[in-house]
Amino acid sequence: MPEIIIVRHPTSKKADIYIGNELFTSLLYADSLKKAVLYPVNAPGHVSVTRGWPIAPKNGDQIDHPHQVGVWFNYGDINGADYWNNSTRIDTNAKAYGTVRFNKIISAKSGNGKAVLITSSTWINPKGRPMLEEVSTYTFSVNGKDRIIDRQTNLKAIEDVLFKDNKEGLFAIRVARELEHVFAKPVKVYTSEGIKSVLANEKLSGKYESSAGIMGED
């Protein structure tokens, strides 16, 4: 089994996870992200399966939903506050947004075929009051050619909280442009010549259905 190594970089607020000599993913926890994310996520051969924008834009990246970075865990309505859509690119005065504040890496253990990273975070409401304590365990492993990320998250309420039924949650990935489904109308994308509105489905290979079996753009 290949060795999976966790390399911590506290000054730059990230931890890199390597499979052998290849970067698999990084846990990023800068305050500007409003929650910790795994970005990028790479398949073997340094092939990224996550969108680059807004952190490291790639040619053809859609430029919508700036809060959708890599792989993340969040929710759209907790006691009326939106944690899901929070980012530095929106008007936070227009709506009540919450933040998942990263506290610390509790432990990081590398190993042959598996590595485990445990973190602590606090969910803060728009008034700056702690609402939830979070402990998350990330397990990175391999099975043949497959690279696997398991996340177990425990949330402990500090005061009464209500997760209102909401379409935005709970665990998600923003995939690379090549893995998106085809679009019926032009979308705005990043290019070396600036932002352009294009309809270019030739390289897209994704097919996504809702829980009701409906294929669509959301």
Please tell me about this protein's structure.
The chain has 218 residues and is mainly beta. It has one domain. The chain has no helices and 14 strands. The strands form four sheets. A six-stranded antiparallel beta sheet has the order 5-4-3-2-1-8, with no helix packed on it. Strands 7-9-10-11 form a four-stranded antiparallel beta sheet, with no helix packed on it. It has a two-stranded antiparallel sheet with strand order 6-12. The radius of gyration is 18 Å and the shape is globular. The chain starts with a strand and ends in a 20-residue tail after the last strand.
Order of helices and strands: EEEEEEEEEEEEEE
Number of helices: 0
First-residue to last-residue Cα separation: 38 Å
Question: Could you tell me the strand content as a percent range?
Answer: over 45%
Report the principal-axis shape.
Answer: globular
Percent of residues in helices: under 10%
Gyration radius from CA atoms, angstroms? 18 Å
| Biggest sheet character | 6 strands, antiparallel
Structural class: mainly beta
